[in-house]
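Homework-ish question, so no full write-ups if that breaks the rules, but can someone show me the predicted structure for this set?
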Amino acid sequence: MLKRLLGAAVLAGAALASLSAQTPRYDLLLRNGLIVDGTGSPWFRGDLAISGDTIAAMAHRIEAPATRTIDVAGAVIAPGFIDIHTHARRGIFDVPTADNYVRQGVTTLLEGPDGSSAVPLAPFLTKLEALQKTPNIGSFIGQGSIRQAVIGEVNRAATPADMERMTGLVEQGMKDGAFGLSTGLFYVPGTFTPTAEVVALAKVAGRFGGSHVSHQRDDASGVLDSVKETIAIGELGGLPTQITHHKVIGQANWGRTVDTLKLVDDARARGVDVTIDVYPYTASSTSIGAALVPAWALEGGRAQTLARLKDPAQRDKIRAATIAMIRDERGGGDPKNVQLASCGFDAALAGKTLADVARTRSGGASLEQAADATLWIVEQGGCQGVFHAMSDDDLDRIIRHPATMIASDGEVPIFGRAVPHPRSYGTFVRVLGTYVRERHLLTLEDAVRKMTAFPAARLGLRDRGILRPGLKADVAVFDPATVADTATYTQPHQYAVGVSLVVINGQIAVEDGKVTTARPGRVLRK
Ligand SMILES: [Zn+2]
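A: Not a homework solution, just the prediction itself:
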């Protein structure tokens, strides 16, 4: 009897043991990858295991079983990409899967760039919390939006009472979870802000551990002064400062990145924490009005702009400035270098160039005729544009610089609608395909660092951006031999290729190149 009981107990024990051997230790196990951990260290062949939303193990070989095991067979396993400059609020509520980003391996988006954010930030972040979304999202607080709320679009100095309100709004933004202060000193009303006023607000963001990131005042003939200003804001404000989407616009200014990067190197050598981000394209994108109409003509808002355009003397003055801006700045010297991305007043204009519009309206595409077409567009309600006015040499120099990270400056497009800049669909995979594989301008490990650990460190995101047990499981898996962008200026609505698997907070967000039904994205706060 005893013997039989003992025998049964032994049998039961054996059954338990074999059951526990089969009980999965991990939720997801990726096998046989080339692990590029985000730090810039050389890849190693290995496995990565995930439990819940966290990386549980990473080693040359992981034997313990997982609920799901995927053999990625020689693909790169990298941290999910962090895009520090996006306009994702354009579109994220329509397309909460942000397919254009996650299919590139982007797992975190930062909003509120260029001085433009929700003010106050808290309701916007609450609305994002409620949204079932695929990527993680965080935000900066925008100086332009704050100045707009307190002073309006007018060109005047801030009073002490204005300053008190504006510093209060920056403080509130930081308490709400902003990662820092963004400025857009190129745009109205940011352009009316003296440097000292920005410094005063930057100090507040710095007190909360935030950084400053700037769309600079002038990226054309004044680019050197603008870089000096961005550096000064960091130096006087006592916080990290970043030149966002660094660029040099206008053929007469090409080559000046030799000098701008020297300014950055010199500033870093004396201890100023200045960094750069860039997108891998030689065309920029913003509104036709901001790009080709002088800021003074936009002061006070649309009604005042239209009134100035109705006054013949003022119109002549604006037209002369617009001619110069087409010739020397974002117009790239020729109206065919300006492409319309989307026009609220006439969807059929998307994809046409400013030269096309000028010819339709006046039979020719001289600089003068293009300026007339520009002012007509502004009067009709305006368009977004794509502006071909940068050089590849400058772009190469910026991308290679060790203090440069990658960011798209893109948005979440509605698939097929209008003809937006391809950067929203292609930035990260274009760097991996063109700049790493084809041109050998960057190593794979350095490119991944510029998309992961570097922006994470900039944001103070200590639990993302690197592959390490204990950190959040945001992971991008791609084939280094085929990863590429397919979006072009004329056919931008084309997804990345070569990214087979994307994991966000431990959940599979992209599999076999397709977005899944998971909505793992979280709102991130500083
Ligand atoms: Zn910008």
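Now go work out the reasoning yourself. Hint: Residues 96 and 133 are 5 Å apart (CA to CA).
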